[in-house]
Amino acid sequence: MSAAQSVGPQALPALQEQVEQIIAEAKRQGASACEVAVSLEQGLSTSVRQREVETVEFNRDQGFGITLYVGQRKGSASTSASTSASGPEAIRETVAAALAIAKHTSEDEASGLADAALMARDLKDFDLYHAWDITPEQAIEKALACEAAAFDTDSRIKNADGTTLSTHQGCRVYGNSHGFIGGYASTRHSLSCVMIAEADGQMQRDYWYDVSRQGELLADPVSIGQRAAQRAASRLGARPVPTCEVPVLFSAELAGGLFGSFLGAISGGNLYRKSSFLEGALGQKLFPEWLTLDERPHLMCAMGSSAFDGDGLATYAKPFVENGELVSYVLGTYAGRKLGLPSTANSGGVHNLFVTHGDEDQAALLRRMGRGLLVTELMGHGLNMVTGDYSRGAAGFWVENGEIQFAVQEVTIAGNMRDMFKQIVAVGNDLELRSNIRTGSVLIERMTVAGS
After folding, report:
1. What burial class does residue 52 get, using C-beta atoms within 10 Å of its C-beta: 0-12 exposed, 13-18 middle, 19+ buried?
2. Can you give the pLDDT at residue 5?
3. Digit-coded pLDDT (tens) for 280-319
């Protein structure tokens, strides 16, 4: 993106200087401690539909958020996303607003900055920034080629629901009154295609996409369009199935959601509020013995890599589940204090979660399953975090004798997540690499499929 070259590592010194100014202003106005996150972002997004250009959007946003403390009282405020909202007057006003909020809040023994001794020291560069010198005209050309390939793939592809190419780059700097300042520049580029197939009075919609730190490494637009068309056409003729209890295979792009729900259940916020079905589960065997879930935050060029967490603590590689046993919660400083446990350097989330997988691809897992449901789409948000009860609308394919027979829609899959975790039979080698959670397809021994 030619106009976007200013949003990169070269912008970090100015943002770091701004963080220092905001911290100094907070101290001047009477804060006993404070922390600041400053961001500068820029992006280009182009979308086409039905062989016509639909939108071309360019955005550039800058702003900051501050959390400050007056003793054990906490106040937070942020600026609007515009460059003018980061000047001296905006800094003074935002600090004053945060101070006013702090003076009206109750004291909280758990509030405050993380221990100064725990601040990250070695801020490595994980090669997260790769500007893509692509013009709007080139982006439109790629999007049109992607959609055209989808239309050419199958005569039953009658309509398009949007093909979008986006390129984004930004800088983020975090600092606090312990003297810690850390920042990094990153990029994220994506191409997605959504197509509609129609036959015998039925219409089905499906998609495909790719994401990369490096625009040049995105999958070929033609292959993305073809995959989107194939997926949409394969769903034609979909129908419900009778209610039954059968094995369920979650495709790799959906399986990450299962482990994302698990991370939510072992996260500090849900635990100290006593709103998690895994409260008190540390040390318990939750998964099969062969399964491990581990965080690897220092991978080069990965989507989730970071040298420090949202509190400024140094991130480090660690398991959350080892040999099926829950060995660590997901904790930031505040949640850790509420629970009487040390932070796991996960304020803001987990960085690059890896799930143990075997050497079987999805076709092999279908053969192992024999008879059951392959799930390729989920609808709704059907997890009760307190009880672990799981119920989602689903679509996919019915499998008999290890082979796909027909498309399925209008069914609900249900179970309890504790049971689902224990009943994981296998994880495929068809790894989902576009996500912060790297897993293959997940085969669960038995769930209720409610249909016609």
Report:
1. exposed
2. 46
3. 999 999 999 999 999 999 999 999 999 999 999 999 999 9
Q: Which residues pair with 78 in a beta bridge?
A: 65
Q: Which two tokens stand for residue 377?
A: 């789409």
pTM of the predicted structure, to 2 decimals: 0.94
User: What pLDDT shows up at residue 75?
Assistant: 97
Question: Strands 318-322 and 202-212, how do they pair?
Answer: unpaired
Residues 6 or more apart whose CB falls under 8 angstroms from that of 451 comprise: 240, 241, 242, 243, 244, 408, 410, 411, 412
Dig out the tokens for 24 from the structure. 């100094």
Q: For residue 424, which amino acid is it?
A: I
What pLDDT, on a 0 to 100 scale, did the predictor assign at position 83? 46
Mean of the per-residue pLDDT values of the chain: 95
Range 2-233 has CATH code 3.30.2290.10? yes
Tokens of 105: 């809040």
State the Cα–Cα distance between residues 63 and 53, nearest whole angstrom: 31
DSSP string, 128-193: --------HHHHHHHHHHHHHHHHHH-TTEEEEEEEEEEEEEEEEEEEETTS-EEEEEEEEEEEEE
Reference 361, options 402, 412, 312, 303; nearest CA is: 402
Those residues of the chain that have pLDDT short of 50 are 1-5, 83
Give the model's pLDDT for residue 85: 62
Q: How far apart (Å, rounded) are the C-alpha atoms in residues 112 and 73? A: 8
How many whole angstroms separate alpha carbon 395 and alpha carbon 408? 5
Q: Sketch the domain layout of the chain as residue ranges.
A: 2-233, 238-452
